[in-house]
Amino acid sequence: MLKLVALFLFLVPSFTTYFADRIQGTAAPGISLWQLLYFFIVLLVVRILAGLPVLFFAISTVSFLALPVVFVGSLIWVVKTLATGDSGQIYAQSKHYVSLLLNMLAVIPLAIAFISQIPFREYELHLFQRTGGVSLREKSLLMATRVINHILFTVIPNVLQVWREEHRTKQPLLLHEVPEDIFVERAKRLKQRIIKSVMQMFDVGLASICFALEYIPLWALEIGALPSPQQIEEHRDGK
Amino acid sequence: MANDKQVKNLVYVGIITAFATLAFVGTTILRIPIPTTGGYFNLGDTFVMIGALLYGPIAGLFVGLIGPTVSDGIGFPQFMLATAVVKAAEGLFVGLIGLSLNRSQSYVKAGAALILGVAILVVGYFVFEALVYPFLAKTAPFFGVTDFNAAIGEMLPNAIQGVLSAIIAFGIWRVLKPKTRSEG
Fold first, then answer.
1. Count of beta carbons in the 10 Å neighbourhood of residue B102
2. DSSP-derived pairing of the beta strands A31-32 and A26-28
3. Strands A26-28, B40-41: parallel, antiparallel or unpaired by DSSP?
4. In this complex, do B33 and A140 lie within 8 Å of one another by their Cβ atoms?
5. Other CB atoms within 10 Å distance of the CB of residue A172
6. Segment A1-31, tens digit of pLDDT
């Protein structure tokens, strides 16, 4: 519980400008000294409070989530600048995306560490072993935590793994192997590629829903069968 | 032994949690930034729309309220307020039409519900970014991320996001919808 409180306290600065206003200075263009400091503090805190495996998991997850945001965002600005010829904001936007990357690199690992420290399993065991009965609210909470755990740690990794295996990308070509008309060919196939992408998203969405809902009726029966406090009272009274 | 009503309630809680978590994941995994406002394009709406179409307005409301809003907390906290209101309204109204679908299973009604959802998404974000946020920014600089012009610039990406989500949602709804008697 203390770990959760500590991790929550370290999350607070990311939602306020209080500390950023007090620690002035720039570490690099777009990166304030406070941001850089906060990033290193977060890594240290996650390492100490959640452990090395969680830190590694958090770093790989944040790379997966943040890098596309930053690179696609920057690319969109480059395309916009090339299209309009207006390069006025490009420097400010570069700084914005560097800053956003650092922000996500700090907030997401902390959020993952926070979730990893919530004692779902202990709570579940506690409710199953309790002799005084389980209220409907506790049963609902138990159901919700089970479903969240199932989706985040079983459904999504499995669906993504299957998707990767079924849609292996071709080996990248070496420069001398690239045909001259590659861009023309790809432009011609753009419509097909878009339709294919939508179909793939449809597949992933449908599979995720089916796997996510798979065990809910079974769990509802299992959790619903836990005696309520009233049933325990009646049993004790011999009714 | 558990009574039927309690089991049904627990199933309902599980379904809302599942769709909210999927909406969270759908919003978090694929984020394409929109240059004008600093917002981002995502496909979390798919799960809000399907949840609402299949399980009604209350499910839609909670799925829209929880999943995408929590996702905004990671990296884009300034949009949490707009997302909470807009996505909850989207889920609620799509679900209200979806409720009548349980009897008829009409494709037209499902399409109408999804178009309404897209309209709520586009208009809702426009209202927040063009009017509400600039107003709030006068007292809280935290909300000073958009203005009228930026909000207009974000309407097209929001519309594309909504339409793409609705197309995927419609396809999934066709597969998962309860069978009518004529379908066996």
1. 14
2. antiparallel
3. unpaired
4. no
5. 7
6. 788 888 888 777 766 666 666 667 777 766 7
The answer to whether the beta carbons of residues B110 and B53 sit under 8 Å apart is yes
Q: Which residues pair with A31 in a beta bridge?
A: A28
Distance of alpha carbon A122 from the chain centroid: 23
Q: Are B180 and B147 in contact (CB under 8 A)?
A: no
How far apart, in whole angstroms, are the C-alpha atoms of residue B83 and residue B69? Answer: 6
List, for residues A173-198, the tens digit of each pLDDT value. Answer: 677 777 777 777 777 777 787 788 78
Element (H, E) at B32: strand B32-33
The answer to whether the CB atoms of A220 and B10 lie below 8 A apart is yes
pTM, rounded to two decimals: 0.81
Q: How many CA atoms lie within 13 A of A93 on its CB side?
A: 23
A206 touches chain B (CB under 8 A): yes
pLDDT reported for residue B39: 64
- Packing angle between helix A216-224 and helix A136-150, nearest 10 degrees? 150
Q: Mean pLDDT score of chain B, rounded to an integer?
A: 85
CA A17/CA A99 separation, integer angstroms: 14
pLDDT confidence bin for A220, thresholds 50/70/90: very high
Asked if A213 lies within 8 A of B15 by C-beta distance, the reply is yes
Task: Report pLDDT for B184.
Answer: 46
Residue (of B83, B61, B95) closest to B158 by Cα position: B83
Q: Is A85 left (phi over 0), alpha (psi -120 to 50) or beta?
A: left
Q: Decide if A10 contacts A110 (C-beta within 8 A).
A: yes
For residue B104, what are the contacts with CB-CB under 8 A and spacing of at least 6?
B180
Residue B171 contacts A, CB cutoff 8 Å: yes
